[in-house]
Specification:
854 residues, di-copper center containing domain from catechol oxidase, alpha+beta, 3 domains, 17 helices, single chain
């Protein structure tokens, strides 16, 4: 006779192994409090305005710090404190300014020697072992542990990273004197149809973009090993360029610069459309690999150039606050928040600074930013072999990996990495067809103009639509696939809203009907009501996103009780109204008695987020859940030891069956990609009432006679609008009352600049001339060896925005179209209120940052 307890145990075992639909030993948890708080900030945001993947990564990426191993810091303190002390001394003027001033240029505008020196300095930090394991890795490791909480998710983001890259730049200068940190203007690459094919990822520049870095100046780079592991091998630095994410766009930068207060561009009160931190995350995702995880991103050298560009955008914004709105950016720290570690007086552990100190002008006393490259019809060269001119917008865009570097126009001496700006010519419409010559000969192609897209470009685009994911397989610093187990998940998608027609049309009464293709849900009353009726506003996707019929859904697990991320993808048929696919996601092996806790997420290749649905252990139905999953090793196990076993667990090849049987019981998680217009993990909310903004001074009133750039520069042209000063990149105008001062348009804002060496700026030619302002002073004489051109009579003719008239070298010079003299007309050398800060012969052709006291 069988004992009752034994019988019960046998029944339970039978139910576990024999009956379908039995609840697996999986626990579904609520959202982490910090994650729920971050999501709630975006509960009112409709995803037709901002890419949903930007928001989810912004909230989820800092979760990695929960599992970072705390490394000993004391051996590094002396070195880092030395860098910090030098930063303090430089800001207080205790270091010779000329010796310490750095001009940060766009990476592709470096001369060959400058680029070689920069690469040499970065590799020198990697080999320098005055701190362990080396200076580069020690600096990169600062972007981890508790620092992630201070460096991300609030207003300290801007100041923390400014201090961080200043420390890095000082270290570079220690390796190779004179080397400065260049910035990577990724908005230029974003102009390409496929930015992953940019020449930026060539062996000549930053190296390959997929998998381990095997080409370029950083080939063979590896991350530091886990010192606690007996397997002390170093994992390679990995990239997955272009598989996910999006680079900065020109429009996103202009939107950031259109705001009028720091609280409008940084958490927690900013709109994500204008949030500089939210937008910067797209570049981390675009590079992928180690760059996608905050704790490992600085181990890829491209990280520092990306954040130098973020800092450049911020400096443009700071100049706007100071010069157009009369707001002191150093005191304009957002205070209306309760974000932990982001208070103004919060101490930054990497230096003896507070978050508020990061907003100080003193930090930028030793740094200048050169303007982003521009071009025009008059100057179709971008003065870089890696950039070509897009004439219709005055933009320099990169050549592709299929191109050969362009020859740079010859000129006297070395190539000028900071070409004088020229206003782009107006866009001329194409000529009308000549009825007498219907087949004119095509003009010769301009090597500086990007070729037109081929009629078959969509085929090439589809070919590149499916991107592989190379995972690091790193778990708590140890990189080995044997530490991972695999979980199968379903991916269910509805037809993308952007795929309106697939050109497979029904035939009705002998005629083809092109109203809808046969797969479209709107073509049938039931699917239109059930499927189409659930859709909200069309979610926004990446700029270079295309719904071509073949889709890719990226699924990911992120450890919550371990350090590790795994990313994979599923391929879907976008034609169908609803389709299903399978992906296999790796998580930490729970071991014999352990527990694995992970966050599961999915989004399509356009950045549109998917819902998470978990199987109800009682009903077997899939219901919305948080995606926080706990697995253990108890039976029935819902994971497999490797990918091969996971496949065989889902598809039963046993017995004599000719066709494998599908095992639906192995799935406890389904991603549902239905293109909803709000984040799925919080209830949709109406937009909150606008808070009254406290502005120190009212915004300026723009008129149609002038455009006020700063206290020292006013242009005799009107601003384009109240929110956007100028329209064309590279557009330039001379500052009223100055000889060498001018303003150049960059991302919809004018920036004040000055011709180097006290040279004169020509309003007519829209560039700095070879003539010195000293030589143009009334009463001056031509010095021996002067570059001024003289006519047969010995008089000179100079144009500054108007007609040219001969004038005596001792009395007359033409400014603004009229002749000037000592006794009549406007005298450009008379003291002016607009010249109080910069003298008229101030010598700097770059954009000077840091307007604090010197």
């Amino acid at each position: 006779m069988v004992h009752a307890d034994s019988l019960t145990s046998l029944v339970m075992i039978c139910m576990a192994f024999c009956l379908p639909g039995v609840a697996p030993d999986v626990k579904f948890s609520d959202l982490l409090p910090e994650l729920a708080t971050c999501y709630q900030r975006f509960a009112h945001v409709t995803l037709d305005r901002v890419v949903g993947r930007f928001l989810s990564w912004h909230c989820e990426a800092p979760l990695g710090m929960r599992n970072i191993r705390h490394r000993a810091k004391h051996p590094l303190h002396n070195y880092f404190n030395g860098l910090v002390q030098r930063m303090h001394d430089a800001g207080r003027g205790r270091v010779k300014r000329q010796a310490r001033r750095c001009v940060r240029k766009e990476y592709r505008m470096l001369t060959t020697q400058e680029r070689t020196d920069y690469h040499r300095a970065v590799n020198g930090l990697k080999r320098n072992t005055i701190v362990q394991p080396n200076v580069y890795d020690a600096l990169a490791a600062l972007h981890s542990e508790m620092q992630i909480l201070k460096a991300h998710g609030g207003p300290c983001f801007l100041g923390w990273h400014r201090i961080y890259i200043l420390m890095y730049e000082m270290a570079l200068g220690d390796e190779v004197p004179g080397v400065c940190l260049p910035y990577w203007d990724s908005s230029l690459d974003n102009e390409l149809e496929d930015p992953s094919q940019s020449y930026m990822f060539s062996p000549e520049l930053m190296g390959n973009g997929n998998g381990p870095i095997t080409t370029g100046p950083f080939a063979g780079w590896r991350r530091p090993p886990n010192t606690d592991s007996p397997n002390n091998r170093q994992p390679p630095v990995i990239r997955n360029v272009g598989a996910d994410g999006q680079l900065y766009s020109r429009q996103s930068i202009e939107m950031i610069l259109s705001r009028n207060d720091h609280s409008e561009i940084i958490a927690p009160n900013s709109d994500p459309d204008y949030d500089i931190e939210v937008q910067h995350g797209g570049v981390h995702l675009f590079i992928g690999g180690d760059m996608e995880a905050l704790e490992t991103s600085p181990f890829d050298p491209i990280f520092f150039m990306h954040h130098a560009f973020v800092d450049y955008i911020w400096e443009l914004f700071r100049v706007k606050l100071r010069d157009q709105l009369n707001i002191d950016p150093s005191t304009n720290y957002p205070m209306d928040h309760n974000i932990q570690f982001h208070g103004r007086d919060e101490v930054i552990d990497i230096a003896n600074f507070t978050c508020g100190d990061g907003y100080s002008d003193r930090l930028m006393e030793t740094v200048e930013y050169e303007s982003s490259p521009s071009c025009s019809a008059r100057r179709p060269s971008c003065n870089s072999p890696y950039l070509r001119c897009r004439l219709d917008e005055g933009r320099c865009i990169p050549i592709t990996l299929q191109d050969t570097p362009l020859p740079v126009p010859p000129g006297p001496g070395p190539v000028n990495p900071n070409p004088d700006p020229v206003i782009p010519d107006p866009v001329v419409p194409p000529p009308r067809p000549d009825p007498f010559n219907p087949n004119p000969v095509d003009p010769q192609p301009n090597p500086n103009v990007p070729p037109k897209a081929s009629d078959c470009s969509h085929i090439e685009r589809e070919r590149h639509n499916v991107k592989p994911c190379q995972n690091t397989f790193c778990l708590n610093g140890i990189c080995d696939i044997d530490q991972w187990v695999y979980v199968p998940v379903k991916v269910v998608t509805t037809r993308p809203p952007g795929l309106h027609k697939y050109k497979s049309f029904p035939v009705i009464n002998g005629d083809i009907s092109t109203a809808n293709d046969i797969y479209h849900p709107s073509a049938y009353s039931k699917t239109k009501r059930i499927i189409e009726g659930k859709l909200g506003k069309t979610p926004k996707g990446y700029t270079n996103c295309h719904d071509d019929g073949i889709g890719q859904i990226f699924v990911q697990s992120q450890g919550l009780n371990y350090e590790g991320i795994y990313k994979e993808s599923a391929i879907i048929d976008q034609r169908l109204a609803t389709t299903m696919s399978i992906a296999y996601i790796a998580v930490k092996d729970p071991g014999q008695r352990g527990i694995t806790r992970a966050l599961f997420r999915a989004a399509d290749s356009c950045g549109r987020v998917c819902h998470t649905s978990c199987r109800n252990p009682r009903t077997g139905a899939f219901e919305p859940c948080s995606g926080v999953i706990e697995l253990d090793s108890q039976y029935p196990r819902m994971y497999s030891k490797n990918y091969g076993d996971a496949t065989l667990d889902v598809w039963d090849y046993g017995g004599e069956q000719r066709c494998p049987a599908f095992n639906n019981d192995k799935f406890f998680l389904t991603f549902y990609c239905d293109y909803k217009d709000h984040l799925p993990w919080v209830d949709k909310m109406a937009a909150p009432a606008a808070k009254p903004k406290i502005m120190p001074r009212p915004a300026p009133v723009f008129n149609n006679r002038e455009c006020r750039i700063s206290k020292t520069c006013v242009l005799d042209v009107s601003c384009f609008s109240a929110t956007r000063m100028c329209r064309f990149t590279g557009e330039t105008h001379r500052c009223r009352g100055t000889c060498s001062g001018y303003a150049v348009c960059n991302y919809g804002r004018y920036k004040e600049s000055h011709c180097s060496g006290g040279r004169a700026f020509s309003e007519k030619m829209h560039r700095c001339t070879g003539m010195a302002c000293d030589e143009l002073r009334p009463g001056s004489r031509v010095r021996p060896g002067s570059s001024r051109r003289t006519g047969s009579s010995g008089s000179i003719s100079i144009k500054f925005g108007g007609s040219s008239r001969p004038s005596s070298t001792s009395s007359r010079t033409s400014f603004g179209g009229s002749s000037s003299s000592r006794s009549s007309g406007w005298n450009p050398f008379r003291p002016s209120p607009f010249r109080s800060r910069y003298p008229w012969n101030f010598g700097s052709s770059v954009f000077r940052t840091g307007f604090g006291k010197r």
